[in-house]
Amino acid sequence: MSFGRNVTTPWGQNWLNIAEPVLRKADSGRLERGLAYATPGRVPEPEFEPGRALATVDGSGTSRYRVEIILPGPDRIEAGCDCPDPVRPCKHVVAVVFRIGRIIDEDPSVLRTLRAAGGNSVPLPAEPLASPEDRTAGRSRWGTELATDAIDPADAFARPLQTLPDAVSAPDAVGEPCYCPPRPGTGVDLEALESIAAVAAGTAMTALVEADLPDGVGAT
């Protein structure tokens, strides 16, 4: 089973790498049920402190179980749960592991806290460098590293101005917006979304045609 597909950032992936020894011990049934439990509804906000996470998992019916995950040192992780399941890790531990991964996706500082065993500050792992084909507009896909072929700002400003292209003509009417249905379960009203898109397109059309611009600039 690929664990990385359940997170969206390199920091979330780093957490799953740390927790992999726990996840590898879980059977497929507990992995699947744990993933299904890894939601805010089942696992409310865990508590984080250096090298330690505590979480409550809402089980079936009114049952609630306490999960503790400890990182006593580099490349070491321990996890426990007070549920009656004799097999470890149980689905509740799996749920908390994946829930933490998704929290770290949104707030990487949580990873720093968990990796700070003994209260020591631990730097976050570096962002991955993008390959040349992933780079866009002089930035990496993570938005922090300059591409090796980026243009120096001074050279860019020193370039002579090119002749502007001829002004384009405004369309006769607003076209139909693209059909982009929201993902199931998001609760987005498709008709309302299409209405908003139509209003935005009409407003843009009016601004384009009626804009008070200098002669020779803008649409004709």
TrEMBL record:
Protein name per its UniProtKB record: SWIM-type domain-containing protein
InterPro entries according to UniProt: Znf_SWIM
Top-rank taxon, per record: Bacteria
PANTHER family registered for this protein in UniProt: SLR1429 PROTEIN (PTHR38133)
Any one GO molecular-function label of the UniProt entry: zinc ion binding
Domain named SWIM-type: residues: 65-101
Keywords: Metal-binding, Zinc, Zinc-finger
